[in-house]
Amino acid sequence: MKLDKKKWIWLVVLMALFYIDPIYAGPGGFIAKGLFKSFWGKILLALLFVVLFPLILYVKIVESIKERKNKKILQKISIKNKAFNWLQLEKEFSNSIRRVYNAWSNEDMGEVREYVNHWYWQNQQAVFIEQWKRDNLKNVSRLEKLEKIRPLYLELTDSPDFEGSRIAVAIDVEAEDYLKERDSGKIVQGKSGLQSLDYIWFFEYTEGKWLLDEIREGSLSLQFAKLENSIPDSLKAGILA
């Protein structure tokens, strides 16, 4: 039986959906899918790359355009408030990301209270970390390298100093994430070893500080890149004109 081009594409996509390696968690409690780690997974990855290359290129172009646009907007905003200067933001976000990973690894989000808002701190500590402790599990989460930070979505306010504004950044990291039993050390989800992961981190400008507000899955990066920034008309007609 011969398959036409469309059927081949659907076959490869379906294989990708059903071929899933063990899963594990990182900061934010999201489950990162360990795809393409085995021999056959790598073969599948090569096939997917060939078939989906036009889509991959489209995503890269859309996200790159939005990234450049947002950096220009932030540069204009920084004229009134230097806390919005992208070079400074990149340093602050990088510092926060590394600290959150360390706190997550130490199972104590209290270490980063000054870098995250109350909602994030309370939910991560109570919902994920404490539950794993009750289940006698430990999430090994080690950040090896922070590769990229890209601003994909802006929510600006016209409040004094732009208080309450939010920035969604796409981050690419090289990290180790898996769940193991505390007593035996047996890995119950995931694999030891580094892997490439991506997430969307939201930061909110509160009382002169950028605080981590939320973490979402990296698969949403295109959605946020295509989402129109939330900018008040007063800013569009004023400093951003």
Topology:
Blueprint: H1 5-18, E1 23-25, E2 31-33, H2 39-77, H3 86-105, H4 118-134, E3 137-155, E4 166-181, E5 187-189, E6 195-206, E7 209-217, H5 221-226, H6 233-237
Antiparallel strand pairs: 1-2, 3-4, 4-5, 4-6, 6-7
Structure description:
- By secondary structure, this protein is α+β, with helices and mostly antiparallel strands.
- It has one domain: Nuclear Transport Factor 2, Chain: A (Roll), CATH 3.10.450.240.
- It is 42% helix and 27% strand.
- The chain is built from six helices and seven strands, in the order H-E-E-H-H-H-E-E-E-E-E-H-H.
- Strands 3, 4, 5, 6 and 7 form a five-stranded antiparallel sheet that branches. It has a two-stranded antiparallel sheet with strand order 1-2.
- Helix 1 packs across helix 2.
- The longest helix is centred in the first third of the chain and has 39 residues, at 39-77.
- It is flat.
One letter per element, helices H and strands E, the order comes to: HEEHHHEEEEEHH
Give helix % range: 40-55%
Give me the Rg, rounded: 20 Å
* Low-pLDDT runs: 1-9, 11-25
Name the overall outline.
flat
Counted beta strands: 7
Summarize the entry for a quick read.
With 241 residues, the chain is α+β, with helices and mostly antiparallel strands.
